[in-house]
């Protein structure tokens, strides 16, 4: 590529930054990463509800994880090239990493239920639905970053409420387990519940990262 071509491309990127196009593209990429995590959560919920066979869900989750890796890689690539971002670049990396962690935990959950999960997985349906609700709220918060930054905090609070719901359900299901005789099925359910609790914690970290970024931007 000639020096002139390189300068032309740099000028085009700078012009896009000034017009806000790069910011909207970044928001779209973060939103896409959230959407992939939601697809993973929906797959896990459908499996717990008995709508998808476990080994098939595990194979599909591998594809979803690959989609998530690609979405994160594209975001990182763009962040290294653009001149201006809607929020601090470091915060965007933190949000992206936390969303990726959500998907990683969901992948491990689906893998473990295929390997040693109990026959009845209905106990996991409600916590996974809370995760889906939280991801929906997070997606809404991400979409408000540019056009309605003042509304992001409320949407983030709704995400945190969904995360609290996951923790409450985890504690309630654990209490039910402790009231039962100790056997291998009990231990298997406890392990899967712990994994779901980890999903909720990672989602909470993504929400906190976005809230911190918006607070920093307002100063």
From TrEMBL:
Keywords: Coiled coil
Pfam families: PhoU_div (PF01865)
Superkingdom, natural source: Bacteria
Coiled coil regions in record: 54-81
InterPro entries: PhoU-like_sf, Put_Phosphate_transp_reg, UPF0111_domain
Membership in a protein family: Belongs to the UPF0111 family.
Name assigned to this protein: DUF47 domain-containing protein
């Amino acid at each position: 590529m000639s020096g002139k071509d390189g300068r032309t491309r740099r000028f085009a990127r700078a012009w896009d930054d000034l017009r806000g196009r790069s910011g909207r593209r970044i928001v779209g990429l973060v939103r896409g990463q959230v959407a992939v995590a939601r697809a993973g959560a929906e797959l896990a919920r459908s499996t717990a509800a008995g709508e998808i066979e476990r080994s098939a869900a595990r194979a599909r989750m591998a594809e979803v994880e690959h989609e998530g890796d690609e979405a994160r890689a594209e975001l990182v690539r763009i962040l290294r090239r653009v001149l201006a971002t809607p929020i601090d670049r470091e915060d965007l990396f933190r949000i992206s990493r936390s969303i990726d962690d959500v998907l990683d935990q969901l992948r491990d959950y689906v893998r473990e239920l295929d390997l040693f999960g109990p026959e009845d997985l209905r106990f996991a349906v409600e916590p996974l639905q809370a995760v889906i609700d939280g991801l929906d709220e997070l997606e809404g918060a991400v979409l408000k970053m540019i056009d309605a930054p003042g509304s992001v905090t409320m949407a983030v609070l709704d995400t945190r409420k969904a995360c609290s719901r996951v923790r409450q359900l985890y504690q309630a299901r654990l209490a039910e387990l402790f009231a039962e005789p100790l056997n291998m099925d009990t231990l298997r359910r406890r392990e899967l519940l712990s994994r779901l609790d980890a999903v909720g914690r990672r989602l909470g970290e993504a929400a906190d990262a976005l809230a911190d970024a918006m607070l920093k931007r307002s100063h």
